[in-house]
Sequence to fold (440 residues):
Amino acid sequence: MGQEEIVSSMLQELRRGTLVLCVLRQLETPMYGYSLIGVMEKKGVRLEANTLYPLMRRLEGQGLLESRWETGGAKPRKYYQITDEGRRTAQRMEEAWHDTVASVNRFLEEERK
Amino acid sequence: MSDLKERYIYAVVRNLPRANRQDIERELGTLIEDMLEARCGGETPTEKDLRVVLTELGTPAELFRKYSPDAGKALIGEGYYPQYKGFLKLILPLIAGAMLIAHLMLLLIGEMGWGEALLNYLGTTLSALLTAFAGITIAFAVMERRGVRVGVASDTIENLPPVPKRSEIIPRWDSVIGLALCVFFGLMALTFPQLMGMPVEVNGSMRQIPVFQTEVLRASWVWIVIFTALGLVRGVYRLIKGRRSWSVLAVSLACDALSIPVACLIFCRDELLNPAFRQAIGGLLEGVPQFVFWMFDRFNLFFLGIILFALVIDMIDETVRTLRARA
Fold:
């Protein structure tokens, strides 16, 4: 495995958990998958379609999201939205995220001195 | 162009669970259209655009893995794989070895010639090895699926067992010998019951007279399989645990206790003893003490007695050793 590949796989590991939190928070408003990719990208969070769609199905299976098909428009689209269980999970994840960021930043600051 | 899209979607969903297939199919279809629209603006997408979009989505195999609820699952997972491999490495050579010994004995007693023995050895050994391989694989797959964790590194630091004392350790050879005897008994009784016999001179030449009527013994094959399986369960559990514990004692006692009625069902039948053996032995036993005569005249019951004695001794031995080790 080359250096680039190693770094890329480590960054992927770093991003994996944070994506779930971002997706859950963003889906307070019902959205279909591709529009979610666009909105997230504008906010600086890059998502790949082949990761997002299976992820949303997994979160739905875990009861954190719910979905419904909208067939009234030009194309049939599946809209996803966060559930109460998802909201509680996102809340706990957000707290853990802030704690982690604070402690890792503190650690890095210490190391830099 | 739409043909390529349909083929791509079909390749992704064809092995996914039926219940989700249609939904994922629709979802992927819309996603690909959205991606094409974003790429081409108002223009009509070409086949090249579709290929770019599909490449961005990944190969059908990659996408299938991401959608699959069974991703990362295995028939025998990494927790059990070393044990599974270890059992195959132990049991399969035991079977091949037991079959080799049995065939050498068949050669020695003149039951088969070299050519026949070789062909018979290859055929029966292959069949026995495949059966054992399937049995071990199924047993481990069931344990994996049911989440039974025996002898697997713990997922938690709670309730970790203490490091075993020297007296608690069950030597590996002890369990292996038990398993080897069990395999040998099962194979002998099921495939070559005629090997359990004695050479007797008939009309000036030596002939092997089987102790038991082979057809009668083979008719009890269900009980022989159960008897062998109980021995295997006991041996395998001891081997996996590797230490004397209450659970090992319980399994050993249960298997031994259940083996007693099963052995009785196999060997208590009067018609089991070969009349030719009784007749041949009758001539040799003239003038011997009454109990020796009875021993051979009712050899099936004598044989059963030896088995029951061994089982009872094993139960006492296991209990005493476990009590001492845990004291």
Observations:
- Strands of chain B lie at 197-202, 205-210.
